[in-house]
Amino acid sequence: MKDAYLKFMLATVIYGTNGIVASHIPLSSYEIVLTRTVLGSLFLLVLTGFRHEWKTLYQMPPREWLLLVLAGVFLGGNWIFLYEAYQQIGVSLATLLCYIGPILIMILSRFVFKEPFTVPKVTAMVLVTLGIIAINGADFQAHGLSWGVACGFLGAVCFALLIVVMKKAKPLTGFFAPACQLIIASILVGAVTYNLPTPDVNLTIQDMSYMALLGFINTGLGYALYFTGVQRLSAQSVSICGYFEPFTALLLSALILGEVLTPMQWVGAVLILGGVALSELWHPRKKS
C-alpha cells in the first residue's frame, strides 16, 4: 500500500509540471494532447517489449479488454474536453471545473465500490474543494454558462468515469495496460484533431525536447505510475490525493515561473495540503 501511495503521489507531482512544460510548446492544445498520447504510448510499448510483457495480450479475458478500451476512451475524452476548456475559458476556470471530478468519484464510490463516507474523508473533501475554489475561483464569476464551461464539466465527468473503470479492472502490473489505454486515447484525439485546421509551425530543437519530455516522462511514465497507484488505492483516497496535482502546479509556477501568489491562493494551497494530510493520516478508532 505504501508503494501504491508513493507511485500515485509521484504521478501527481509529475502531472503538476504539465502546464509548465506545455507552455514551451508552440502547438495548439489538441496537437499537444495528440503529441503526448502518441509519444507516451510509444514509450510504454518499448518498455513493454523490454520486459517481455506481450504474453499479457493473450491472457486477458474479453471483460478486461472492454475495460481497457473504455478507460482509453474516457482518458482521451478527459484531455480533449480539458484542453478545449483551456482555450475557451482559460486555465484557471477550466482547472476549477475539472476538479469537480474527484467530488463525483467520492459520490460514485459509495454506490459502485460500497466505500462508506467517513468523517475524515468527507472533511478532507470539503477542505480540498474550498482550497481549489480559493485558488481558481476568482475567474468563475467572469463566465456564465458557455461551451467552455460545458467542456470543463464534461472533462470532470470523463475523469470520474476513468477512475471508476480503472478500479473495476483487474489489478495489473507492468506497462502493457496503460500503454493500451494511451493508444486508444491517441486514436480518439487523432480523429478529433484531424478535422481541425492546424497552422504550420516551425519547431526548433528546444521545442521538440519539451515535446519529448511531455510525451515520454509526463505522459508515459507518469500515467504508468498513476495507473498502478489508482488500482491499489481506494476511490476516495484517489479523489482526495489527486488534489496534490494543482497544489504542485501552483507551487512550481511560483518557484520556476516567478508567478506571484495572492493571499487567497496561499490559503487555498494550505487547505489542499491540509485536506490531503487529514484524509490519509486521520484514522479514528472504532468503538468496540
Can you describe this structure?
It is a multi-pass membrane protein. Pfam families: EamA. Its main location: membrane. Belongs to the EamA transporter family. Keywords: Membrane, Transmembrane, Transmembrane helix. This protein is an all-alpha fold and 288 residues long. It has 14 helices and no strands. α9 crosses α11. It starts with a helix and ends in a 7-residue tail after the last helix. 45% of the residues are buried. The model has no long low-confidence stretch (mean pLDDT 81).
Roughly what fraction of the amino acids lie in strands?
A: under 5%
Fraction of residues in H or I helices: over 70%
Based on CA atoms alone, the radius of gyration comes out at 19 Å
What kind of sheet is the major sheet? none
Distance between the termini: 26 Å
Number of helices: 14
CA-based shape: globular
Mean pLDDT: 81
Structural class: mainly alpha
Residue windows where pLDDT falls under 50 for at least 5 positions: none
User: What series of H and E elements makes up the topology?
Assistant: HHHHHHHHHHHHHH
Q: Oligomer, anyone?
A: single chain
Question: How many β strands by DSSP?
Answer: 0
Family: Belongs to the EamA transporter family.
Organism: Megasphaera massiliensis
Membrane topology: Multi-pass membrane protein
Main location: membrane
